[in-house]
Design a protein that fits this description.
The protein is an alpha+beta fold and about 375 residues long. The protein has helices at about 15-25, 40-50, 55-70, 75-80, 85-95, 105-125, 145-165, 175-185, 190-210, 215-220, 225-250, 265, 340-350, 350-360, and strands at about 275, 280, 295-300, 305-310, 315-320, 320-325, 330-335, 375-380. α3 (about 55-70) crosses α5, α7 runs parallel beside α9 (about 190-210) and α13 (about 340-350) packs antiparallel against α14 (about 350-360). The longest helix has 28 residues, at about 225-250.
């Protein structure tokens, strides 16, 4: 079963005896307890167990109780997470095992709590993947969801410890679950699971205090009304802090970067002229335009040469048969009077000289679109 870290200080006999004067000692013989003092004695015993013992003890006591009273559920109970065994459950089974004549409502409460652990244990057993044993057994690598689940269970175990500390009065009055979750950089999903896990307990405590349902009153009789209300306030605060933490994660989450479409995918629908025997020129692939910052497009039918430029960091992108991200103010087109000479000049010189030569032509410079068609030669591309 998963281990939950909770610091338990082992005290010497003298120190323990001194503390028991304030906390109370364990009741060994329950036959001497008068009926009118039974509920108070249960509370005192639970206070003793909460102060001197920890999660490992609660689980151990419950294992022994299940072994004696519900042996068929032992395997499933052990497969459940440790944190699901509360200090209340552990203390009550200990009291029962010590011979206390607990009423039927207490037994019902114990069984209900164990039913919950058993149900999750069965799920854990069913979800366990049995690997084929080989000469050299391979270590199964846990996937991200399994790792997150383990971390979440660990945090839930810590919260159970915080509740125990609240009940025995040792929890810091300024404790904030929100601050704790931030401190451990918990995942948003962990916070959602925390809120979900404690809404049932919140509803149960609300029903206990408002409607005073008989079985709940007896199940929580070890706590005074004031303690029940404080516990409800604590649990409601945990839920609220968890929900606020989820919202804070959303607010600070970096937007997911849009995955760029591969150049070949962008260019797959482009219809262009691959070669012109009249001008003795060949197109470069339209995929080269993607991410580039300059491109020259020559229409062999109209003798129009387009110059497109962009200042976008990602360069050009292609959508359908058009080039996007081009600067409409700096891009232009001209009709060539002597196409062969101009094309030859642009292809042989640097990008700066090519643009200078193109702009120096006497023909009119006009705004241009960025469409490519079947008569378009992709003449030159500059990254």
């Amino acid at each position: 079963m998963a281990k939950v870290k909770k610091r338990v200080v082992r005290r010497g006999n003298e120190a323990k005896l001194a503390e028991e004067k304030n906390v109370g000692s364990e009741i060994i013989d329950w036959t001497d307890i008068a009926p009118d003092r039974f509920s108070k004695s249960v509370y005192e015993a639970m206070r003793h167990y909460s102060y001197f013992y920890g999660q490992k003890d609660y689980v151990s006591w419950t294992v022994d109780w299940v072994k004696s009273n519900r042996p068929s559920d032992l395997k499933s109970y052990k497969a459940g997470e440790d944190w699901r065994t509360s200090s209340t459950l552990g203390s009550l089974v200990r009291i029962h095992s010590m011979g206390a004549p607990i009423p039927e409502s207490y037994v019902d409460f114990i069984n209900k709590q164990i039913d919950t652990v058993v149900s999750f244990g069965k799920i854990n057993i069913e979800s366990t993947v049995e690997e084929v044993v080989s000469d050299a057994p391979a270590v199964k690598k846990k996937n991200p969801s399994e790792l997150l689940r383990e971390k979440t269970l660990g945090v839930l175990g810590e919260i159970e410890g915080f509740i125990d500390e609240h009940l025995d009065g040792s929890l810091d009055k300024n404790f904030s679950l929100y601050t704790h979750l931030k401190g451990i950089d918990a995942a948003a999903q962990t916070a959602r699971d925390i809120a979900k896990a404690y809404r049932e307990m919140e509803a149960e405590l609300t029903e206990l205090i408002v409607e005073k349902t008989e079985d709940l009153v007896e199940g929580y009789s070890h706590l005074t009304l004031s303690q029940q209300k404080k516990l409800l306030k604590l649990v409601s605060g945990f839920i609220s802090d968890s929900e606020k933490f989820v919202l804070s994660k959303k607010a600070t989450r970096k937007p997911r970067a849009k995955r760029a479409t591969p150049a070949t995918k962008q260019a797959e629908k482009v219809i262009y002229q691959k070669e012109s025997t009249d001008y003795k020129i060949t197109s470069t692939s339209p995929a080269h335009i993607v991410g580039a910052t300059e491109v020259y497009l020559f229409n062999t039918k109209t003798r129009v040469l387009k110059y497109l430029v962009t200042d976008k960091r990602e360069g050009f992108i292609i959508s359908g048969t058009s080039i996007k991200n081009y600067d409409k103010e700096l891009s232009f087109k001209k009709k060539l009077r002597k196409p062969e000479e101009t094309i030859d000049s642009i292809n042989k010189v640097t990008r700066i000289r090519a643009l200078k030569a193109f702009k120096a032509l006497k023909t009119a410079e006009t705004p241009t679109d960025a469409r490519i068609n079947a008569d378009t030669i992709i003449l030159k591309v500059n990254k």
